[in-house]
Amino acid sequence: MQDGREKKIPAGILAILLGGFGVHKFYLGNVTAGIIQIVLSFCFGLGGLIGIIEGIIYLTKSDEQFVSEYVIGKKSWF
Description:
The chain is 69% helix and 0% strand. The chain is an all-alpha fold. The protein has one domain (5-72). Helix 1 (8-18) packs antiparallel against helix 4 (47-60). The longest helix has 14 residues, at 31-44. The model has no long low-confidence stretch (mean pLDDT 92).
């Protein structure tokens, strides 16, 4: 049975590589946050930086923390 732990590494890699496009947000089911991240990228150039920071945060959290915050809790930012 899958509980969300399998999303941690792909979400972290997507955030680091394609964070400016909010791909990791869409992958985790946060469509609104993904759209906001795209707008931030195109209007202010901040989406890529946010993506790198979030990718590092995702990858450094324990599996349990990641699942509780980002999969179950649907935390959108940092």
